[in-house]
Amino acid sequence: MSINYQDALAMAEEWISAFNDRQLDVLMDHYAATIEFSSPRVAQVHQATQGEYGDASGTLIGVDALRRYFGLALKNVSNLRLELIQVLLSGTAPDGCSQIAVVYKRETGAVAAEVMALRPDRRVQRAVVFYGPGGM
């Protein structure tokens, strides 16, 4: 069943607020235990921390790996601030996940989009992050 726009917007607003308020537990409640999270920044963090955080592939598997990654960002980026620009809907994937894109602006001014596949319980099963110019 596809998510409607109002529910997607409410989810995105809560997700953005969790980042801005540095509420790691609230943020992680949005993700499934088996989350697959892909971002070029994951590989950058892996390299910058000499393999302590992130993954060379750019993909994290599992909520524990994602919690460590987000925890590091919340700790080290003191001015981290996201501003919601738009929520986009794509319908339901063959696996039953609703697909949405959360487009936001970072504290740097760079624009990013996180494309999320939401399970029926509204937890993110898969996420892929895209960055505009200057976002990397």
What does this structure look like?
This protein is α+β, with helices and mostly antiparallel strands and 136 residues long. The protein has one domain (5-131): Nuclear Transport Factor 2, Chain: A, CATH 3.10.450. It contains four helices and six strands; from the N terminus they run H-H-E-H-E-H-E-E-E-E. A hairpin with a 5-residue loop joins strand 5 and strand 6 (124-131). The protein starts with a helix and ends in a 5-residue tail after the last strand.
Summary tags:
136 residues, alpha+beta, 32% helix
Give a short synopsis of this structure.
The protein has 136 residues and is of the alpha+beta class. The chain contains 4 helices and 6 strands; from the N terminus they run ααβαβαββββ.
